[in-house]
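At your convenience, could you comment on the folded chain following this short note?
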Amino acid sequence: MEVLVTAVTALALVVAVVTVLSTGALKTGVRLLLDLLTAAGLIRLAGDPGWNGLLGALAIIALRQLLGAALSAPTPWSGRQSPAPCADDDCHLPLALGRDTGKSGG
C-alpha cells in the first residue's frame, strides 16, 4: 500500500509540473497537485487506519481547502492600473462625446 501512496504522490508532482509548464496555468497546476495529494492521503488512510493517517489526511484536506479558497478569490487589482496609452491625445474622444472637432474622416 505504501508503494501506491508514493506512486500517487510522485504522479501528483509530475502532473502539476507538466500542467504548469505546458499551459502556464499555475492555479490549475496547484489544484491538480492538491487533489492528487488528497487522493494519496486517503489511500494512506485506507491502508493504515490509525490516528497518524487520519491526521495526515486531515492536514492535506485542510490545506487543499485553504489554498483552493485563496486561489479562487478575485485579485484586488483586477481593474486597469494605468490609463490607456492614447487617453490624453485621443482625437476621437470629442466625436464620441458629441462635440465637433472640424476634422472629417480621421
